[in-house]
Amino acid sequence: MIEVNTNRPINSSPLAPGKPDLMRTTTRRYFLQQGALVGGALALGSRAFGATSANEQVNLGVIGLGWRGGQLIDAFGRVPGVKIAAICDPDSSLVDEWSAKVPDAQTFSDLRGLLDLAEIDAVAIATCNHWHCLAALWAMEAGKHVYVEKPLCNAHWEGVQVVNATDRYKKICQIGTQQRSAPFLGELKQLLHEEKLLGPIEWVRVNRFGVRASIGKREAPLAPPATLDYNLWLGPAEDQPIYREKWHYDWHWDWNTGAGEMGNWGVHILDDVRNNVFQDSVAFPQRAIAAGGRFGWHDAGNTPNVHFALLDTGTIPVVIALTNLPDKPGSESAPKCPGPGSGYIAYCEGGRLEGQRGKAQFFDSEGKLIKEFSGNDGMGAHQVNFIEAIRNNSPDSLNGPVNEGHHSTAWCTLANYAYRAAQETATSDSTDPSVLVEQLGADARLSAAAATILEQLSQVAANNQQGIDALELTLGPVLTFDSASEQFTGEHAEVANQYLRTLGRGEFVVKEV
């Protein structure tokens, strides 16, 4: 358990041992609510951590109260028998906002105070990406079941520790890829794999063509909001100056705290591919190559707004095309692409499957629509699935168990690491995509398709990069990943392995489980 220092100074945080000014921005009402917790915790001390039966109320704590945290409060609040019993965020303005909507919930700035509540059975984690693993580990150590948002991690090794923790602490842990709870997936997989409606699957294209805007670039570092406890917000991330214009959400486009579009939207689509096309039979890609860059914006972000990756899975190859740029500067329209703009195409011998959130279509080899699914995208049902697994003590009933979340996240992180290696390492033949694609064992047709996708993304970049008529994205080296050790091996391994683990900071360190 996480211990609370009962001998702390009277003006220190009641939630963070040995941190005198940890809650310097907390309001008086906020402080009084937290100070009242001691008596409540003692009164409920006989309740076992996480112990519930099918008839018991599940008390949920929500950690992280930004856009996604608010969605989770709404979704879990609709599940019968669930009480939003505590909420937490290092920004007191967000806590105050949500406290008005869930007035019975106890409020915290430091998640460790929430985790010390004996009456909390489970937590939903919707923090910045860099906090996901540490928050999940502390929660399971404290005896709580965990619903953690995607991506599971930015650093692959940290995701390994969360998977290990579910085994060590025997806790239910669901990843927030809610599309796994969409109701039509069973029939889709029946048609694709058992009835083989389209024949053998040959390769997969993943698209994320979604327009975003520049995050700007300041001359002086951005100061944290006055309502924010910066030390808690930063947690295990490095203390680096921030030059973007907005504090919240735009952390996605900084490697220190986010994972770019690949970890933001890409993980949803790649999880769909792993689930529906591969039926979770492939944990990790064997090899990966990538290209891309950040074009047109000249802002403070360092994640790519154009990203190409090819993943060698050992069976069906996967080509990824992501861009946040418009078709031309000033436009609000994304570049055109085959299939859904945010989804995938499974090219088969007898046609193709196009899948996206809440929808899937089967086309024959002539392009005729032969079967279509649409409906709930899984939001709501995914939260019900998590609560039912807790009540029934049935981790095997989870639609999005954390080990699958770890695997799907790895497809994204490997694509990111391959991109970062491309920025650091130049190879003599890297400007010829067919050479490197052929190194992955791809046939001539796939090699040509991959080269066409790379050429299209190069044109998107050129269209948005002022003063350039044509631009050639440079592919990085082929990276080889060993699924047993969960590390890169062979040539250029040292370039990629440096991203597998972060050091943490002070008291905020992910430890080996």
Automatic annotation (TrEMBL):
| EC class name | hydrolase
In this chain the Gfo/Idh/MocA-like oxidoreductase bacterial type C-terminal domain maps to 222-279
Q: Where is the composition biased (Polar residues)?
A: 1-14
Keyword Hydrolase attributed: yes
| Residue numbers spanned by region Disordered | 1-21
Domain named Gfo/Idh/MocA-like oxidoreductase N-terminal: residues = 59-176
The catalytic activity of this protein is classed by the Enzyme Commission as 3.2.1.-
Q: Name one Pfam family in it.
A: GFO_IDH_MocA
- The keyword Hydrolase belongs to this UniProt entry's keyword annotation: yes
Keyword field: Glycosidase, Hydrolase
The protein's GO terms of the molecular function aspect are:
hydrolase activity, acting on glycosyl bonds; nucleotide binding
What superkingdom does the record give? Bacteria
Name of the protein: Glycosyl hydrolase family 109 protein 1
| Organism encoding this protein | Bythopirellula goksoeyrii
Give the lineage: Bacteria, Pseudomonadati, Planctomycetota, Planctomycetia, Pirellulales
